[in-house]
């Protein structure tokens, strides 16, 4: 398992006080009345910008827009007004500056070296998880708002996108992920690990069906590993490394360690949480009245 | 054993097949997405692995008619199996699953559709074996000149032969494990089989009851308890409580 990284109390305190102060409206953007915008690298490179009241905003970090302000996405000469709701996080992505609403405020990607990523993660007691492309996923409550308040620590920020699981750029699904294990030496805070939970060193304990959103992961009784859903179909094997940590080996030879954060939970290096597939007991449906009741009907007809 | 109420009208059903009335569909057992069946199987597998028990899978056939046959035979076995058989059952984690779903989690599962599959989940790869006793041939529904009592006796004998065949096969498959257990463990296993699998649902199925006049599903909402209308058939006493399998949707 990865090492725990202690989070200095003073940093926790500082962050908590700052967030509390911000939430109370005593300084900075009024969280309750603001929406957040965050651009990805492609949008930034293409010159896409967020305008607030006609003024283009610096694009490296999240941008807070008061609900009373006129907000627009500017793409070259084109300008698209956006009606943002307070508390909403909106991503602007790709060269076209696509607008994606409902972004997870608890996740973002920082383009930073490991020290900077760790420093930023520690601010809010968040996790810094290395990605295949060398950047870091920051996972923790208020990650976006923390980035807004500490832009000098966060550095360049991009929205986290579930589409990162596409084969082309996925972390643990990526062919260039083999160095992840080495890079995890930055340490991952495991505050979300269940108390007293000790990951099993018994490979058989992991056999089962898991889900994460619409991805289905099956670790089969023969040692096979299968991921399906969201247009992805990947196969391989699973095993334990020399530290008894669960590792996936994809068919192309790449490896990816998995964290076990509870009896029924696996977590991939991107922070994707797989839970054991929930059991559904079907409710007995009423008979379709349009379907003839064969015996009864037959009796009447005889 | 096929529900006798269905047999009574077998010939009529055949005739009606040409009319397009979906007779068997009307009796099709509860359909769930394959993921739902996989989830139940996975849960049972993990429970077995953690408890250090084998996983005993009651195989749900693809064919809807065969589901009734097996549900009846396995239901009679679970309700009236020998003490030794119940000891063997209680030493396992039970679940019902079609082979297509079982092979997702246990690719080394045997070919075909055996009656039961025994999986030892203690290690990877798991060891797997089929338990597929030859069941007695189904007797004719009626024999010329036979009175009602004689017919009932013949049908009871058929059900008893089913129970014995399954009991013997299950006991044989788990003989080594049972022999290695203490008397107290055997007593506990027998009690567990009765308390857990006779009294409650087996994953992937409901318990249901038919005396030959309709089908009542246990734990179903009252307004849905009666699944079909009354026929003229009857069901041997020991085959009346049976496993009503979940069927994969699309089958």
Structural features, described:
The complex is a heterodimer of chains A (302) and B (251). By secondary structure, chain A is an alpha+beta fold. Chain A has two domains: 1-21 and 28-193, no CATH class; 201-276, Beta Barrel (Lipocalin), CATH 2.40.128. Chain A contains seven helices and 21 strands. In chain A, the strands form four sheets. In chain A, strands 18-17-16-15-14-13-21-20-19 form a nine-stranded antiparallel β-sheet, with no helix packed on it. Chain A has a four-stranded mixed β-sheet with strand order 4-1-7-8. Chain A is elongated. Chain B is of the alpha/beta class. Chain B has a domain at 34-207. Chain B is built from ten helices and nine strands. Chain B has helices at residues 4-8, 10-17, 23-27, 34-51, 64-80, 83-90, 99-105, 148-173, 175-179, 183-198; strands at residues 31-32, 55-60, 93-98, 116-120, 127-131, 205-209, 216-217, 241-245, 247-248. The interface between A and B is large, with 36 and 54 residues.
SSE sequence of chain B, one letter per element: HHHEHEHHEHEEHHHEEEE
Question: In total, how many domains does the architecture of chain A comprise?
Answer: 2
| Lateral arrangement of strands in the main beta sheet of chain B | 3-2-4-5
The run of helices and strands of chain A is HEHEEEEEEEEHEEHHEHEEEEEEEEEH
Mean pLDDT of chain B: 81
Q: What quaternary form is this? A: heterodimer
- Side by side, the strands of the main sheet of chain A go 18-17-16-15-14-13-21-20-19
